[in-house]
Amino acid sequence: MAVAPELWGGIECTVNRVGDRFGDQVVLSGHQDRVGDLALLAGLGIRALRYPLLWERISPRRGAEPDWRWSDRRLAELRALGVRPIAGLVHHGSGPAHTNLLDDGFAAGLARHAGAVARRYPWIEEWTPINEPLTTARFTALYGHWYPHRRDERSFWSALLNQVDAVRGAMRAIRRVVPGARLVQTDDLGHTFSTAPLAGQAAFDNMRRWAGWDLLFGRVTPADPLFAVLARHGLGDRVRAIADDPCPPDIVGVNHYLTSDRFLDHRVDRYPSSLHGGNGRVAYADTEAARVLDPPAGGIGAAIRAAWARYGTPVAITEVHNGSTRDEQLRWAAGAWDAAVAARGDGVDVRAVTAWSLLGSHGWDTLLTGGGHYEPGVFDVGTGTPRPTALARLWRGLPRGEDRHPVAIEDGWWRRPDRLLYPPHPSGEAASPRLPRPSRPLLILGAGGMLGAAFVRACRARGIAHVAATRRELDVTSADLPALIAAIAPWGVVNAAAHTAIDAAEENEDACRHVNAGGAVALARACAGRGIPSLNFSSELVFAGDLDRALVESDAARPLGAHGRIKSEMERGCHGVPGALVVRTAALYAPEADRGFAAAVVAALAAGRPVRTTGDHVVTPTFVPALVDRALDLLIDGAEGIWHVCDGEPVTRAGFARRLAQACGHDAERIVAVPAHELGWRAPRPANGALASEKLALPGSLDEGLERFARARLSPLR
Question: Which SUPFAM superfamilies match (predicted)?
Answer without folding.
Answer: (Trans)glycosidases, NAD(P)-binding Rossmann-fold domains
